[in-house]
């Protein structure tokens, strides 16, 4: 069987656009860096390490649900789907579905192209009978798959509650695009549910400080992309639980006054100033159903754990 094929996308990642996006965030009154920049090669590996930390419940609970209900999930999806994995990362979550779902082909989509290429080649060695495709794409902006892909109904897989990184309006826009691109197929999505503050705090600020390293690494990622001179030692990882907006917010806090320069520009970050790097919205079953409905889906099947920490939903 042929090796994985990487497809060209109209949404191919443009370096100049990434530079402009980072600059706009850094120069804003309240500085921010988009969470997709967390996932350079090192960041992707650090996130994989986070998923192994006991305090980070989402991966373990979601994996348990996908394993426990794999037969029901396969029955809901139907036979031999084209499986499209959004934010595929190391592709391991999707691979756990292969035996039950038996995809006719597998399409891995991710922002971190080099990391994806390695992961897809490793996966293909394990499942050489499944045609595999890779797409380097920033689908946080626009999701439109190449026309060279099969035009049959598709099953999208969007695990890890990554939908929580988007503001509600952005999440609705992305889900609406997924509905369009599914061509009559469906969406298998993992969604984190709102829970006690101490559980969330530990999940996003683990004792081993792997999440802190993951968050701080975004500064090195930015240095590489725009040629800036962020000193990681001048910042620390900060987690805030925003109850009114039902989300966890990640920041980098300046430990001292520090000037960051790049390409003839600079910004002073004063001591205690924050750079926002990520939101992680939490949902209730009712609120995620409403979001899916507004995006053109109907939730057809919902699986949750006994503690109601997480939900896996198949919607069509």
Number of beta strands: 13
Rough outline: globular
CATH superfamily membership of the domain at 46-195 and 282-315:
Vaccinia Virus protein VP39
Biggest β-sheet: strands ordered side by side in the sheet = 1-4-3-2-5-6-13-12
Topology of this structure?
Blueprint: E1 5-6, H1 15-27, H2 41-50, H3 57-68, H4 70-77, E2 82-86, H5 92-95, H6 98-101, E3 105-110, H7 113-126, E4 132-136, E5 154-158, H8 168-181, E6 186-192, H9 197-204, H10 210-226, E7 235-242, E8 247-254, E9 258-262, E10 265-269, E11 274-281, H11 285-294, E12 299-304, E13 310-315
Parallel strand pairs: 1-4, 2-3, 2-5, 3-4, 5-6
Antiparallel strand pairs: 6-13, 7-8, 8-11, 9-10, 12-13
Helix pairs in contact: 2-10
How would you portray this structure in words?
The chain has a domain at 46-195 and 282-315: Vaccinia Virus protein VP39 (Rossmann fold). Helix content is 36%, strand content 24%. The protein has eleven helices and 13 strands. Strands 1-4-3-2-5-6-13-12 form an eight-stranded mixed β-sheet, sandwiched between helices. A three-stranded antiparallel β-sheet has the order 7-8-11, covered by helices on one side. Strands 9-10 form a two-stranded antiparallel ribbon. Helix 2 (41-50) runs antiparallel to helix 10 (210-226).
């Amino acid at each position: 069987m042929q090796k994985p094929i990487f497809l060209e996308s109209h949404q191919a990642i443009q370096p100049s656009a990434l530079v402009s996006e980072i600059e706009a965030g850094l120069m804003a009154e309240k500085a921010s860096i988009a969470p997709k920049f967390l996932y350079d090669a090192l960041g992707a590996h650090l996130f994989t390490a986070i998923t192994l930390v006991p305090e980070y419940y989402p991966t373990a609970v979601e994996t348990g649900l996908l394993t426990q209900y794999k037969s029901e999930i396969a029955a809901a999806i139907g036979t031999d789907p084209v499986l499209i994995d959004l934010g595929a990362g190391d592709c391991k979550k999707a691979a756990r579905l292969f035996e039950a779902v038996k995809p006719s082909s597998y399409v891995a989509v991710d922002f971190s192209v080099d990391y994806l290429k390695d992961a897809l080649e490793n996966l293909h060695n394990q499942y050489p009978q499944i045609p595999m495709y890779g797409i380097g794409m920033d689908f946080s902006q626009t999701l439109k798959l190449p026309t060279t892909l099969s035009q049959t109904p598709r099953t999208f897989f969007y695990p890890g509650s990554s939908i929580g990184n988007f503001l509600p309006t952005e999440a609705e826009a992305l889900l609406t695009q997924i509905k369009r691109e599914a061509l009559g197929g469906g969406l298998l999505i993992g969604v984190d549910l709102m829970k006690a503050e101490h559980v969330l705090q530990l999940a996003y600020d683990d004792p081993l400080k792997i999440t802190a390293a993951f968050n701080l690494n975004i500064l090195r990622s930015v240095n590489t992309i725009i040629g800036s001179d962020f000193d990681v030692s001048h910042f620390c990882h900060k987690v805030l639980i925003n109850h009114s907006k039902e989300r966890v917010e990640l920041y980098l806090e300046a430990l001292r006054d520090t000037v960051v320069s790049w390409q003839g520009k600079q910004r002073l970050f004063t001591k205690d100033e924050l750079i926002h790097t990520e939101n992680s919205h939490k949902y209730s079953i009712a609120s995620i159903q409403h979001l899916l409905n507004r995006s053109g889906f109907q939730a057809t099947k919902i699986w949750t754990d006994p503690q109601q920490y997480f939900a896996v939903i198949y919607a069509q």
